[in-house]
Amino acid sequence: MEERSSCRIVQADIDIKRWMTALPSVEQMRPPRCPCCDVASRPVNGPRVMRGHGLRERQVCGPLDPGDAPQQVTVRARRYRCSGCGAITLVVPRGVLRRRRYAASAIGWVLARIGLDGATTPVVRAEVCGAVIVGVAAAERWLAPSRWIEASRRGQLFPRLGRHSAESRRAHIAERTAMQLVALSPRGGAGEPAAHLAFRGAALAA
Ligand SMILES: [Zn+2]
Question: With bands split at pLDDT 50, 70 and 90, how would you rate the model's confidence at 54?
């Protein structure tokens, strides 16, 4: 599941659900330029530089729509190889994050439920984690939200949103990040809960 450091990730403008319904073609998802060496992927009078290089499966956790039951899905990401510099580029649906098992939207949901609704970690875990949690795992603290909050503090969760000061309390970071995600969300119906808006905003913030 880990990508090599030489592998760049490009987010497509297609959400996970649509991507899974109909896998976009090599042609549709070909990046216009190599993200590594910046050469045009389809020069006007030359051969293609970014060539399709197969598929790579990624496991993604979380609900596919806000408030839906959580699931773990397998997404087939498209790989391209640049014949100029040799770099591999992985094109993923919008909201699939590098080195994270959860979709961006599920993370946005968790931060909003904890930071804005005051929901407890076990409740939120049940909302985004599709695996049945039994035995020892059920008794363990769920550390993912703490890791996401720490990454948000350093500006590494959603880099577009900036970072937080080292003194900020975790609850405050969750609240602030969730509010930023809500602000990024396309407006839904009147009275749509904040967690739903943060879910949609997070997919766009990734
Ligand atoms: Zn290149």
Answer: very high
| 90, 112: one domain | no
Tokens for 41, please give them: 């992927």
Q: Is the pLDDT of residue 89 over 60?
A: yes
Neighbours of 29 (CB within 10 A): 22
* CA 59 to ligand 1 center in whole angstroms: 27
The rounded Å distance from CA 145 to ligand 1 centre is: 36
How distant is the alpha carbon of residue 176 from its chain centre?
Answer: 19
93 CA → ligand 1 middle, Å: 21
Residue 139 has pLDDT above 90, yes or no: no
pLDDT, position 152: 95
Together in a domain, 201 and 110: yes
Domains: count for the chain:
2
Mean per-residue pLDDT over the chain, rounded: 90
Using the mean position of ligand 1's atoms as its centre, give its distance from the Cα of residue 90 in Å: 13
89 and 132 in a single domain? The answer is no
Per-residue pLDDT, 2: 42
In sequence order, what E strands does 16-135 have?
A: 50-62, 71-82, 88-94
Residue 161: give the domain boundaries. Answer: 104-205
Ligand 1: centre distance to CA 160 (Å): 24
Are residues 80 and 38 part of one domain? yes
Query: Which runs of consecutive H residues, i.e. helices, occur in 62-134?
Result: 104-115, 121-128
- Between the CA of 88 and the centroid of ligand 1 the distance, in Å, is 8
